[in-house]
Amino acid sequence: MYSSSHYYLFHFCLLFVTCLAQTNFHPKTLFLAVKQDPSTLQYITQIQQRTPLVPVKLAVHIGSENLWVDCETGFKSSTYKPARCDSRQCVLARSIACGNCNTENITRPACNDPCYNIVSNPAMNTFYSGGEIAEDVLTVQSINHSTPGPDSRGPVVTVPKFIFSCSPSLYTQKLGKDVKGMIGFGQQSPVSFVTQLASVFKFSRQFAICLSASPQENGIIFIGHRPYIFALGFDASRDLIYTPIITHPNFFLINRGSPEYYIQVTSITINEKPLVFNKTLLSLDENEENGTKLSTAVPYTVLERSIYDVVSKAFISEMPKEVKTVPAVQPFKTCFDSTYVGMSRLGYNAPRINLVLHKPNVRWTITGANSLVKVSDRVVCLAFVERNQTFGQAIVIGGFQMHDNLVEFDLARRRIGFSNSLYFRQTMCSNQFYTM
Ligand SMILES: *[C@@H]1O[C@H](CO)[C@@H](O)[C@H](O)[C@H]1NC(C)=O
Ligand SMILES: *[C@@H]1O[C@H](CO)[C@@H](O)[C@H](O)[C@H]1NC(C)=O
Ligand SMILES: *[C@@H]1O[C@H](CO)[C@@H](O)[C@H](O)[C@H]1NC(C)=O
Ligand SMILES: *[C@@H]1O[C@H](CO)[C@@H](O)[C@H](O)[C@H]1NC(C)=O
Ligand SMILES: *[C@@H]1O[C@H](CO)[C@@H](O)[C@H](O)[C@H]1NC(C)=O
Predict the structure, then answer these.
(1) What is the phi/psi pair of residue 111, to 5°?
(2) Where residue 149 falls among pLDDT bands split at 50, 70, 90?
(3) Which of 174, 298, 351, 420 could in theory staple to 398 by disulfide, Cβ–Cβ 3.0 to 4.6 A?
C-alpha cells in the first residue's frame, strides 16, 4: 500500500515537472546586448516592445527609476494601456501627479485621467515631470543554463504588462540616432527594469553589467541569477569583491528612495601611495550631495575639482620620467605623449589607481586599460574629467572605468560586486556566447 502510493506520487511529480518545463519556462537569467555609441558615448541596448513587436533602442541608465520612451512619434501598439490616476500602476511607478489630458501635448495613443512620473535624460541635463505612466508588452531573451556554451541562448520570454513612461519626442534630444528613450535599473524603484522582471519571473533582484571597450562589439547586461559565463567556461561571478550599496531616502528632497547607486570610497591611492584631499567630500550627505556613485550616463569618471587636481598630479609624478605631458585635449586635462607609454595584456602601462572602498582591503583597481584613453596616434589622456558644477557627487564612476569589468548589482543583498579588469583573467566583456 505504502509503496504503491509512493510510486504514483513519483510519477505524478515527473509528469508535473515535465509539463511545467514545456509549457511554462521560468528563466533564471535574462540578458540584453549593449554597445557604446561612438558619437554620443552612451551605452545603447535594444528591447522588443508593443503589438506587433518592434525593436526599440534605449540608452542604459543604471541609476534611473524607470524605462521611458518617446510615445509622440511613431508609437503604434494594440496592447498599449495607459494607467489611470491612482491605479496600482501609478502607485508602483511612484506617480507624482495626476493630470488633465488637455494641458499637455498629446504624446500617446490614448489619454484618460493619466498619472505622471519623472523622466530623466542626463544627456540633456533634464528631468521632466510629465512622463505618462502606461503598460505594454515587452520581450527579452533568456539564458538556458543547462547548455553552457554557444547554445546557451534560451527562448525569448514575454512580459505582458511592463510598466513604463511615455515622454514627448522633445526629451529624446542628445540620445543619438534612433534612440527612443532610456532604460532604468535604479534601486528602490518598483518599476525599474530589474525589479519588474524579477517580480514577473520570480528571481532575486540582481543584474550585472559588462561594458565592452570596443564600439564594434557587444557587451552584456545579465538580469537575474549567476553564473556569468565567458568563453572557455570562465564564470566571472566567482571573482567578485563586494561593497555595500548606500541608499538615499530622499530623491528630489522628497520622501522617495533615490534610484542611484552610491558606494563608499574612503580613500584613493596611486601606486599604493594614499592621496591627500578633503575626505569630507567622500560622504554622501542628506541633500544627496558629495559621496560616490556609479553611472552609465557619464562616459568618463567625474571627479570634484580638488580631487581631480590631486589625482592628476600624483598620476603624472608616478608616470615614468620619459613620458612627457602634452597640451590637454577636450574634455581631458591631463594628456601624455604616448611614444614611451608601454603596453601589456592589461592595457597601457600606467600607475595603478585604487579606489579604497568601505574597508581597507576592498579596492577597485584601475589599471591602464581603464585609466588612459587614446585620443590620437601620439596622445593618450588620463580618462577622468573634472566636475564643472559646484554641486553633485565628488566621484561619479563612469563607463570607461567599467569597461571590461563585470559589475554586479545585488539589490536583494544590498551590495555591489566588481570583478576588476577581466584582462587579469584574459577575457573581456565581448567574450561571451550570448550577444555575438
Ligand atoms: C508642445 O508642442 C509645441 C509645438 O510643437 C512645443 O513648442 C512645446 O514645447 C510642446 N510642449 C511640450 C510640453 O512638449
Ligand atoms: C535548455 O537546454 C536543454 C538542453 O539542451 C534542453 O533540453 C531544454 O529544452 C532547453 N530549455 C528550453 C526552455 O529551451
Ligand atoms: C573640507 O570641506 C568641508 C566642506 O567642503 C569644509 O567645511 C572643511 O572645512 C574642509 N576641511 C578641510 C580640512 O579643509
Ligand atoms: C557637499 O557638497 C556641497 C556642494 O559641493 C558643499 O557645499 C558641502 O560643503 C559638501 N559637504 C561636505 C561635508 O563636504
Ligand atoms: C566641463 O566643461 C568642459 C568645457 O565646456 C567640457 O568639455 C567638459 O566635458 C565638462 N566636464 C564635465 C564633467 O561635464
Answers:
(1) -140, 130
(2) confident
(3) 298
Nearest ligand for residue 301 CA: 5
In three-state secondary structure terms, 33 is strand
pLDDT for position 278: 96
Binding-site residues, ligand 2, Cβ < 6 A: 25, 144, 146-147, 154-155
Contact 354, 334 (CB under 8 A): no
Kindly give the number of the ligand 1 atom that is closest to the alpha carbon of 128. Answer: 13
Q: Which of 144, 152, 156, 229 is the best mutation target for the ligand 2 pocket, counting ligand atoms within 8 Å of the beta carbon and taking the most?
A: 144
In the structure grid, which three cell numbers stand for residue 214, read together? 570596443
Burial of 361 (0-12, 13-18, 19+ CB in 10 A): exposed
Q: pLDDT value at position 219?
A: 98
- 257 grid coordinates: 528612495
- What is the position in ligand 5's atom list of the atom closest to the CA of 388? 1
Ligand number nearest CA of 129 is 1
Report the predicted TM-score, pTM, of the whole model to 2 decimal places.
0.91
Say how many C-beta atoms besides its own lie within 10 A of residue 425's C-beta: 18
C-alpha 344/C-alpha 338 separation (Å) is 14
Index of the ligand 2 atom closest to the CA of residue 25: 13
For residues 318-330, average pLDDT: 97
**CA neighbours within 13 Å on the CB side: how many for 100?**
2
At 165-215, the pLDDT tens digits run 999 899 999 999 999 999 999 999 999 999 999 999 999 999 999 999 999
Q: Which ligand is nearest to the CA of 26?
A: 2
| Residue 180 and residue 57 in contact, taking contact as beta carbons nearer than 8 Å | yes
Could you tell me the domains of the chain?
Answer: 4-203 (2.40.70.10), 237-425 (2.40.70.10)
For ligand 2, the distance from its centroid to the CA atom of residue 223, given in whole angstroms, is 19
pLDDT per residue over 13-65, tens digit each?
A: 333 433 333 346 789 999 999 999 999 999 999 999 999 999 999 999 999 99
Task: Report which of 296, 297, 303, 301 is spatially closest to residue 281, judged by C-alpha positions.
Answer: 303
Sign of the dihedral through C-alpha 232, 408, 422, 31: positive
Beta strands in 363-422 (DSSP E): 363-366, 372-374, 379-382, 384-386, 395-397, 405-410, 415-421
Q: Please name the residue whose Cα sits nearest to atom 11 of ligand 3.
A: 278
The verdict on whether omega for the bond into residue 215 sits within 30 degrees of 0, i.e. cis, is no
